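Protocol check, entry for the methods section draft. Step 1: assemble the input record (protein sequence plus ligand SMILES). Step 2: submit for complex structure prediction. Step 3: store the structure tokens unaltered in the notebook. Ligand used here: pyridoxal-5'-phosphate. Step 1 record:
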Amino acid sequence: MGLIDLRSDTVTFPTEKMRKAMAEAELGDDVYGEDPTVNRLQSIAAERLGKEAALFVPSGTMGNLASVLAHCGRGDEVIMGDCAHTFLYEVGGISALGGLHPHTIPNQPDGSLLIEDIQNAVRVDNIHFPKSRLLILENTQNRCGGVTISREYMMAASKIAHDAGLAVHLDGARVFNAAVDLSLPVDKLVDMVDSVMFCLSKGLCAPVGSVICGTKDFIEKVKRIRKQLGGGMRQAGVLAAAGIVALEEMVDRLVDDHERAKSLSKGLQSIPGIQLDKGSPNTNMVYIVIDQALGINAIRCQESLRKQGVLVGITGPYHFRLVCHYWIRDEDIPVVINAFQNAILA
Ligand SMILES: *Cc1c(COP(=O)(O)O)cnc(C)c1O
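Step 3, stored output:
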């Protein structure tokens, strides 16, 4: 029995087509700028996102870090949500390596930040205060349920930041899920931000890599920082080749993951004792919570599910995250629902 792995969309293996493209990729030394496959990925990405230039990086975490370091200087302040991936899950890199001061404001249940909170977070010019330099937005917002943020909101939040002299960086790890959910071309979801990072290695199934997009000058700056962080790669075209397939063939099908997440969420909610933990899924994630009165906690439930061939992520004492992706099929959904039923009755 193959495992049904819903822990994340990062567990996705490359497709057959990716493996073939990787094997046949034309290569060069990318630190010299001579890898034709990396260069092709970067130009496809820049065009697709409507930005002047792009840079391939080993991970989303490095992509966010290098972008933030390029926008800010030591001691500057960075405004972001208290559920932002950069705040929660990036090992405090912007502080440890950049000497930056995170200023968090509450993420609303829909993933947004109140415009008023952004406005109030911006520091006035005063000798006691750090300088506010950057606003980080996230779309889809992972910790709020994989929720999609609208183009209108992105524009309003960016305008507030720009009017106050701040730059805006989008953590768009799953920005293609957001674009597909909104039926918008992705460039329409990022044209208001100064820089954006997206991941090839999540729902798009590439084995490794993320891309940063922005102006030519910005990308030149980020390229030096990537090297400084140890992220200069040599014949990285073997990885970029999979990224090209990801961009060209794996975006439109994300809608299937969203549909499966909806049917999974519906089925799980029909089990007494299981409720949605965040809003109804917009995209590929389902967050749920089980009733404490069932007498089973998340760790024991996860163990029972594992014995039934289902892997899930734990997000709290009774809380789970389940993520649909390319390797989750329609016929897996009833198996997962059934496994939860068994786990809870056990
Ligand atoms: C996964 C993720 C990242 C980081 O990507 P890695 O490649 O895992 O380092 C950044 N932001 C968000 C919202 C993510 O979900």
